């Protein structure tokens, strides 16, 4: 019978990490070799200092020494699997700082399902450099505290262990070395990986692999059997399937990316390469060192490879055809309607002027395509691994979406007849033969490009995806082909005026056509509102709707009262009212500040679980249609309130009854409430506290400060 690999992995992993620690008694800490409770094998741990006195501003080194029982081992910061390496949290006097753990070179063995394991046995020493402030007072005593966690394993079982340590070091004029610890620190430094002074490292992304190029310093080499131990789990070591080969004076490590761990959990992909090079022979005969530190080296994007003409032509053809098809897309057609009306109005006019308008429209399309593709190219160059960019990604910026949405909405209002914004802005009107009209044609080309991007992905995805990976010249050529495809129909109409004569003559029908086009603009604005709502959160969309309403009122006031038949006073009042409503509308539609609170989904079980853990809980019973709920959200949770709640350990939950939810209704009944908003503060060991219905930041600060106790050892802000 076949065994499904993921299930096998999960079974073996669970077998490995089965909570044996839960069955063991707590370990005792003391000098290496001290017996542990129950007589079972456990590690011992001590924190020692290289000096017994310290001086202001002078760094000193401390070390955590682990003593492993026979057959047990702990792990490097990247264990190679799902085991946990040593972690140290420091509690230092004010002004002190602790550096990173200086890891010894780990040993390597094949673990479960051929995964490599990077581990320590015996009595490894983990050094950390501590730096005191230059203002440290002489004759004082510095108390260095550390909390460490680590995992020790042997075949079939693992134990989670932890310890707390304190060092009290007097402050004197100069640091004094503790001779009793000299041998320990000298041995640790002798066997520790050396810093790669004079070595050069370069990392490039190569699809499923990362290429690490290592150029040793003069006099150094990479011996046979060299292995690279990555500091992060997303890369495989040489002994786990990666490769290394010599190229000139350098060695190139082709490091395989690991995307899932042994139990199929996704592995976060890093942005740099760091780790240790180890070998059985020394890298440098002079030092005799068998391990070299690889400093954090940023993974760069590999240079794009140019395509042959035969491979490039289909891409150019696909981009050109895609540009043609864009003219029929709902995002573009409203703008195209503007230009068609322009050509209709130009019938019978100077043919040279018509050609000029067609060229201006084409130049507008080309320029805007070049600008957008230039931004895209810059983003592509700056993006790190896992930060891919693509055509239309400008719509990921909520400000871009907001501007486009407002532009489509205002143009729609104008085309419907609510007000007139003039020929120079839309490319529609009676002055297309003038310089101002040419500017309108140029603007129409830009507008057609900007609104075309969200429509291009569905049928141009493959071609655009390939074009984005091309080197600079071919990259811009591909997007130029797409621009020419978009502009070609209008360029043809302007160059061959007889085709323009086939279009209907100007007449009363144009007003109806213009109003019909406005509904397509409103549809585009609606699509962009949907995108915008997804970016700012549905709970903030009501403000945007009110904002658009205010902008529509501003347009109506302007169109109704700012006309030639009105008095100067009426026009002045109209402008003032228009500006007030437009400003209010813009304010309401702007992207809100990101909430400083993270709201978990409510359940009664989750509340009980948190209370059993001793954590206070704040629950917001809310709904999308509840206007008072939305007002509370806007007023009650600024950053200072969020910081206070986090400092007091308050967990925030949201019970959303936008749609019917029997569990929420039941809980509201238990609280004696039938309508929302209802906000409840739960404090362990006390009755629930129901807030008032309408409240703001001051109320929340007073409530949390009064009702939620400080954590042990914390001071009130």
- Report strand %: 15-25%
* General form: extended
Q: Uncertain segments of ≥5 residues (pLDDT<50)? A: 1-41, 384-390, 422-436, 713-717
Roughly how many Å is the radius of gyration? 34 Å
Main sheet: strands, sense, barrel:
7 strands, mixed
Overall pLDDT = 79
The strand order across the widest sheet is 15-18-19-13-14-17-16
- Strand tally is 24
Terminal CA distance: 64 Å
| Helix-and-strand structural type | alpha+beta
Helix content: 40-55%
* Number of H- or I-type helical stretches: 18
Word description of this protein:
The protein is of the alpha+beta class and 717 residues long. The protein has 18 helices and 24 strands. A 7-stranded mixed sheet has the order 15-18-19-13-14-17-16, with no helix packed on it. A 5-stranded mixed sheet has the order 20-22-21-23-24, with helices on one face. A 4-stranded antiparallel sheet has the order 1-3-9-6. Strand 10 (141-154) and strand 11 form a beta hairpin. Helix 5 runs antiparallel to helix 9 and helix 6 (398-416) runs parallel beside helix 12 (541-561). The longest helix is centred in the middle third of the chain and has 34 residues, at 435-468. The radius of gyration is 34 Å and the shape is extended. It starts with a helix and ends in a 10-residue tail after the last helix. The relative contact order is 0.07.
